[in-house]
Structure formats: C-alpha cells, structure tokens
C-alpha cells in the first residue's frame, strides 16, 4: 500500500531510534520482572504465573487483527498508536494495585489487548519509512534492544533498593513519554495494514511460508517465553533482583551490535543459513540451562543472546516480506507476528508454567531446547526448498 510521508527523512532518523528505545525500555522494566513479582509479592503458583504471563501472546492472536481493521478504517496509524500507548500506560499503572488472582487475570487481559497494537503498528510505520527514505530496520530496532537491556537493569536495581511496584511506574511513565513522541512520527496519508486477514489463503498456499510459521512458533516461542522465566531461574540460582537486571542487561544489550551487522551477514551467508545458525545457538543455550549451571556461568552465556536473537528477529522479518507477494506483505508480517510472538509465546509460557509446578526450572529450559531444535528442522526444510527453486531458475 503506497503512502506519503509528511515529514523529512532527517526527522525520522532521529525520532525512530528514540521511540523504539522508550517503548522497549517500558517493556523491559516490567515484563522480565513480572513473574518474580507475582511469585514473591503476590504469592502465586507456577501454574497461575504461567496462565497470567501467557495471556498477552494468546490475546494478541485475536485482538491484533481488530487493531488492524481500526487502523485501516480511520487511516490514522499514528493516532491509533498514540491512543494504544496511553491506554497501555494507564492499565499498566492499575496493575500495581491488583493482588487477587482473578483481578490480575482481568487486568493482564486488558493490558494485552491494548499493548498488542504497539509493536505491529510501530514496525509497519518504521518498515515503510525505511523503504521510502533508505536505511536499515535493524539499525532502528537495535535501539529497542538497548532500551530493554537498560530497563531491566535499572528496574531490578530500583526494585532491590526501594519497592518492587516501581516496575509498573517505570512502565507507565516511559509509555506516556513515547506517546508524546509518537505524535511526531512521520504521518501517512493512508493506513498501515497492521493485521487484516486479506490474502491469508494465498499465503497459506506457499510451502516456505508455512514452514517459516512453524519455525517461528517453535523458535521465537521459547525466546520470548524466556523473558517470563529467566528471572525465576536467576533467583533459584541464588541471584538477586539486581542480578536479574544485570543478566538481562548483558543478554538484551548484546543484541544491538548483531542487529547492526545483519544486512552484511545476510549478503555473505544468506537468510536461512544465518537463521539456522542463530536458532542453534539458542537451542544450545536452553539445553545448558537444563543442567542449572553456576550463576557466573549463566551471566557469561547471556551474551550469546545477542547473536541468537539479534540475528533472528531482523532475518525472519525480512524473509517474510521477501517470500510474500507484494500485495499481501502486510498480512504476512501480521501472521508472522501472531504465530511467533503470539501463539508460540503463549504455548511455551503456559506449558512452562505447568512444567515449573511439577518439575523444576531446569526442565522448563529442556522443553525450550526441544522446541527450538524442532524449529531448526523446519528451517532446514525451507533451505531445501530454496535450493530446489534455485535449481529450477527461481529466486530463493
């Protein structure tokens, strides 16, 4: 869908990195520490924590298309994004007052409903901006990783030295600032298609797309579910809240340089081989955590997240757009987000909570490892199809 950007390229180059830093700072301040908060401050069980933490991804599957239709109807993606940011900030602040499990479920569902609009609409606006004015999505998205890393460390330190509910205050404040900044993002004369279902049938007829959906379900599910359980893992290894923040700082902070390098590595090795390598690193990391190694060793291994996640996110997003027909690319990105970030995360988070209740945290990471290596098999299938297409004179 063709759109017209109303602001100059130089304005976007300054605004997008800061905007991504703010929204992911908000996410980093809350979500990695939320499971620990629910366990230690509210006293919930592993199954209850898993249920609450899995609400967000499963809600995304059903609510995200509605945000897309609203965006298409109003033709004001920046306005919709601003409203979603402010609503998410308000509900996040209300989260800090809830202690009853039933109310926590309700608030978590409401929070997920409005939050699910933020990243898809932001990515759609940013991707179109990059296409129109040049640049790299990875160079923009890396600021989100930096913000996330800084937030977990700051949030962990503040929670250790003051009160745990400070994570909700940081979350809300940063989203309010991001909402004011969002209003200055490049305006568009038509809607960004953030989640409609047009073209789904055509996409589902593409074997490589189906395999990619399976791969993202199995690979990104554990990566994002790790944000819910990594804090508990560190605590069981006798870590502190500040230590949790440090671990996430090392992990998320190491993503930025690899995101910056993605374009060059794709040209050298190809997208799917690079994705396979990054996923294999993730799978080995989860397998090592099954043995619950010493805490110092865990801190050392967190930096490999930069390689695994920092490469996987931009590679997968670019490959989705490359294999989808031009007129259904927005729908393809929406499905990719719903399956990998939504359904896969819900599945791994929910099953992880059950495993945590009946076994131990190491078993959760064994489950993550098995899922990841199964996902690699789907990527190998794509690689084989690419080779067949090239041999038949088609582009892979």
Automatic annotation (TrEMBL):
Alphabetized GO MF terms: cytidine transmembrane transporter activity; uridine transmembrane transporter activity
Keyword Cell wall biogenesis/degradation among record annotations: no
Compartmental location: Cell membrane
Residues annotated as transmembrane: 15-37, 49-67, 79-97, 103-130, 142-158, 164-183, 203-223, 229-251, 272-291, 297-320, 332-356, 362-385
Keywords carried by this UniProt record: Cell membrane, Membrane, Transmembrane, Transmembrane helix, Transport
Chain ranges of the Major facilitator superfamily (MFS) profile domain: 12-387
CDD domains named in the record: MFS_MFSD6
GO CC term, one of those recorded: plasma membrane
Topology in membrane: Multi-pass membrane protein
Protein name: PPP family 3-phenylpropionic acid transporter
């Amino acid at each position: 869908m063709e759109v017209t950007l109303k602001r100059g390229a130089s304005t976007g180059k300054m605004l997008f990195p800061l905007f991504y830093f703010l929204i992911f700072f908000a996410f980093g301040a809350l979500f990695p520490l939320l499971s620990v908060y629910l366990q230690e401050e509210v006293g919930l069980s592993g199954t209850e924590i898993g249920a609450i933490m899995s609400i967000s991804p499963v809600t995304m599957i059903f609510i995200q298309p509605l945000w897309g239709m609203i965006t298409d109807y109003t033709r004001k993606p920046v306005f919709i994004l601003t409203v979603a940011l402010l609503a998410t900030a308000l509900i996040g602040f209300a989260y800090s007052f809830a202690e009853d499990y039933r109310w926590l479920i309700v608030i978590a569902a409401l929070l997920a409903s409005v939050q699910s609009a933020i990243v898809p609409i932001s990515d759609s606006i940013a991707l179109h901006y990059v296409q129109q004015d040049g640049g790299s999505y990875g160079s923009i998205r890396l600021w989100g990783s930096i913000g996330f890393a800084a937030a977990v460390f700051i949030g962990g330190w503040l929670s250790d030295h003051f009160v745990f509910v400070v994570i909700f205050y940081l979350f809300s404040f940063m989203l309010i600032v991001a909402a004011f900044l969002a209003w200055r993002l490049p305006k568009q004369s038509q809607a960004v298609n953030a989640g409609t279902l047009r073209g789904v049938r055509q996409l589902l007829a593409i074997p490589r797309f189906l395999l990619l959906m399976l791969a993202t379900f199995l690979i990104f599910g554990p990566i994002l579910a790790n944000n819910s359980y990594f804090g508990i893992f560190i605590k069981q290894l006798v870590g502190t809240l500040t230590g949790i923040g440090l671990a996430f700082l090392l992990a998320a902070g190491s993503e930025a340089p690899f995101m910056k390098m993605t374009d060059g590595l794709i040209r050298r090795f190809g997208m799917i081989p690079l994705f396979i390598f990054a996923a294999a690193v993730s799978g080995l990391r989860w397998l090592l955590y099954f043995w619950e190694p010493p805490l110092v060793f865990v801190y050392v291994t967190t930096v490999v997240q930069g390689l695994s996640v920092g490469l996987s996110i931009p590679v997968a997003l670019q490959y989705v757009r490359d294999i989808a027909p031009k007129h259904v690319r927005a729908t393809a990105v929406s499905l990719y987000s719903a399956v990998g970030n939504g359904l896969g995360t819900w599945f791994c988070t929910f099953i992880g909570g059950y495993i945590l209740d009946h076994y131990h945290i190491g078993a959760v990471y064994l489950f993550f490892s098995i899922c990841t290596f199964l996902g690699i098999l789907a990527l190998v299938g794509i690689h084989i199809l690419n080779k067949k297409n090239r041999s038949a004179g088609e582009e892979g």
